[in-house]
Structures
1.
Amino acid sequence: QKEVEQDPGPLSVPEGAIVSLNCTYSNSAFQYFMWYRQYSRKGPELLMYTYSSGNKEDGRFTAQVDKSSKYISLFIRDSQPSDSATYLCAMSGGGGGNKLTFGTGTQLKVEL
Amino acid sequence: GAVVSQHPSWVICKSGTSVKIECRSLDFQATTMFWYRQFPKQSLMLMATSNEGSKATYEQGVEKDKFLINHASLTLSTLTVTSAHPEDSSFYICSAQTGTSTDTQYFGPGTRLTVL
């Protein structure tokens, strides 16, 4: 079993839809949770960074962390074609220090 | 802020040659830099962690004599792929972290290496 599980997709939604992306993990010691967006042939771009459980909102993006369920989510409101990318969840802590453990990434396509 | 650059963005080389990839933090000092490789449609796999002025720590299965990492300053780390072979063809991405281990990592744009 992978330490971080993420549905690879692809996920296709119409423009304006609410998108829900999720990751589950097995290491209960993870403390820091991140979502990155990666366009094709580019490096990952940090979208959201949260510590421990709770919600964080930034514009159209909302990140949720439920440590009791070992489950994190990223919601994208009013999705746009420019949101089409691969979304990677990542987490750290858990005895690994500052190393990031990534999910496999979910490929999202927002269609006109 | 928190911009990381990589050079070159892509490189094609012949089998058996060595290739150097640079990673620079442009507007902050990076005490720690990380090197990843990413195969098509796969996630990032950590290769090594480097701290300024000390030897890099390699992940299990990564050959330290093949992938030479130098972190000579707080803004520059280099990855040299020695005696490259076609199976080394991949997307290499660096990231940089500022101070403490709780700081997030900022990623470079990546370098696409093709070994013929």
Note: The longest strand of chain A covers residues 30-38.
2.
Amino acid sequence: DGGITQSPKYLFRKEGQNVTLSCEQNLNHDAMYWYRQDPGQGLRLIYYSQIVNDFQKGDIAEGYSVSREKKESFPLTVTSAQKNPTAFYLCASSPMGGHVETQYFGPGTRLLVL
Amino acid sequence: AQSVTQLGSHVSVSEGALVLLRCNYSSSVPPYLFWYVQYPNQGLQLLLKYTSAATLVKGINGFEAEFKKSETSFHLTKPSAHMSDAAEYFCAAQGGSEKLVFGKGTKLTVNP
């Protein structure tokens, strides 16, 4: 069954701590994306990657970092520099990152600050 | 830059009534347009997309949307609401070489 998995479903972060959110896809898609969702704000793009070992900043990249060492994996690290990390984080993928392509979404990770 | 406006952050309808969720985009270039649905604590699922082939686009679960260039709109409709339609709906647009831009969402409540 092809799809996108995100783990964990819930994640708690302490002050000054870095945390990493996992995103894996078995759709053989080239492009992957990370979005942040806040109530009433819609989705905002954090980072995206169209090919292994390459990624670009989105609209709200500050305080976040990513890596793309494998085609199927695109982990997101929320660093201690992100002062307001509480949000719902969604990972998505699309075949080649071009126009008109549907983005397929994972089930999300909810990050909470202790 | 592309922007998407969804009129009404909350819409409430009775079961069996017409569903109308509004979406307007801003672009000098006709964009590609999408409607996604999100159930609580889940990811987004594509309902339908406009790719300049036909102005009336049919999607899953009985939803459809009509692209109106003169009004820069892409409103989502369903003739008869079902309780299972209760969710949050997002309109998104992609123009030229830009990335996908989402509206802020409309939460649909269906009353019995």
Note: Chain A has a mean pLDDT of 93.
